[in-house]
Amino acid sequence: MKRTGDLKLIQELNRSIILETIRKYGPISRSEIAKKNDLSPTTVTSAVTELIHDGYVNEGGTGVSSGGRRPILLQFSPDNHFLIGVSISYSKITIADINLEAEINIKKIYPTKGYTGAVLVNYLLQLLEDFYATQQDHRQCVGISIIIQGVVDAKKGIVHYNPVLLLEDVYLRDSVEQHFQLTTWLENDTNAYVLAEKQFGHFQEVENLIYITIGEGVGSGVIVNHSLSRGESGGAGEFGHTSIDLNGRPCRCGNKGCLENYISWPVTANKIMKEIEAGRATLLASYLTEHKSFITPSEFVEAINTGDELAVEINYEIATYLSAGVVNLVHLFNPEVIILGGDVTNQNPILYACLKDMVKERSLKTLYKDISITSSSLGKEFEMVGAASVLLQDKFQFKLTHDSNRLKTSL
Predict the structure, then answer these.
(1) How confident is the model at residue 397 (pLDDT cuts 50, 70, 90)?
(2) With 60 as the cut, is the pLDDT of residue 190 above it?
(3) Up-side HSE of residue 49: CA atoms within 13 Å toward CB?
(4) What is the spatial order of strands in the sheet that 57-62 belongs to?
(5) In whole angstroms, what is the distance from residue 72 CA to residue 69 CA?
(6) What b/e string do you get for 296-332 counting C-beta neighbours within 10 Å, with b at 16 or more?
(7) Alpha carbon of 269 to those of 163, 293, 315, 344: distances in Å?
(8) Among the residues of 143-182, which ranges form H helices?
(9) pLDDT tens digit string along 329-385?
(10) Cβ distance 378 to 193 under 8 Å?
């Protein structure tokens, strides 16, 4: 005799399978859904009725008849609901109204104002309150999805460690969930980006995938056998805090020679400014004005592509340090694809060329020969697509395991 819990799990799995099939292949008939997933027509009809009632699916048009009445076709309705995506970085908080295909309706960016710890959390709650109040319409909010740098336990909703924002063992998910009475998700930002590449990017069929982001910090998201590797407490993928020099620069994490201290954008920008202040001739100095005392990553990349000596030199250093870390990833995970994300890597073919040569030279030939090192396919809204992917994967797109296949076929 089946337990009620088992039956409910089967129904939830089947509903998610059916919704994902409609999203991917719609317009599609009920009979086609049943055939694609080896489900009974009764199971499909029951789940589709619920999905239509809840506003996730609608009927539209008819298909070709194979004898008898023409089948009614079903299609996904991504705009009847929305989610609130949140990205917290060291300098800004981005909040967006996003539909169920990870398309942005409204987006707002706020400076962090140097806030840290509890003050930052309270500031976030106020920003969310103001933003959510303007989104009250006929649509239903399915939840809030937050991504942030640092060691994040997604299961427990805890930011274990973010040294810049002074967050340590902060139950951020619970704080937001209790304040708004909306289901909330919390995830490390780079984990979110690699999930987004699997769900919405060009790498949906890749089994072993690593996403590296270089920005205010350095991190990685790792997909192994189609599943995200988070580690015991959410610390897997702390690529920026792998050591490339045991006697190197002290890091705020307590280690020495952490990769982040050599290639993150703040480190690179500081290096550029020191060279300019020392009188080094460089195109980069022309980007500074009376009202602008900093260099942006896009300006750095532009200078590289024009052949500026200083920019090319620093870019080569980044590739050198980065290659040391990437070789370790190649040997540890043997991935099929390594994706580089972040403004420093965008439109920077020289970095990719240098990195590929260095990694090829230092890696085991057997492990390197089939690797593709490439750029992100998520576009400029990668942060919000990442935030949306965390929620959408968990709420609507169950990853099938052997157990879920067994449950499905036993219905």
Answers:
(1) low
(2) yes
(3) 7
(4) 28-29, 72-76, 57-62
(5) 9
(6) ebebbbbbbeeebebbbebbeebbebbbbbbbbbbee
(7) 20, 11, 12, 11
(8) 172-180
(9) 999 999 999 999 998 999 999 999 999 999 999 999 999 988 999 999 998 899 999
(10) yes
- 97 close to 134: Cβ distance less than 8 angstroms: no
Cis peptide before 27 (omega within 30 of 0): yes
Which residues 6+ apart lie within 8 Å of 179 measured at CB?
A: 125, 128, 129
Distance of CA 77 to the CA centre of its chain: 23
* Backbone torsions φ then ψ of 136, nearest 5 degrees: -75, 105
d(CA 390, CA 388): 6
Q: Give the whole-angstrom CA distance, residue 304 versus residue 224.
A: 34
- The answer to whether 194 and 212 have CB atoms below 8 angstroms apart is no
Q: Virtual CA dihedral for 19, 98, 89, 317, nearest 10 degrees?
A: 70
CA-CA-CA-CA torsion sign (229, 230, 231, 237): positive
Residues in the chain, total: 411
pLDDT tens-digit map of 234-244: 888 899 999 99
Q: What are phi and psi of 325, to 5 degrees?
A: -75, -40
Q: What is the pTM of this model?
A: 0.88
Using CA atoms, how far apart are residues 120 and 212, in angstroms rounded to an integer? 26
How many CA atoms lie within 13 Å of 83's alpha carbon, on the beta-carbon side?
29
Tokens 């709650």 — which residue? 125
pLDDT at 62: 76
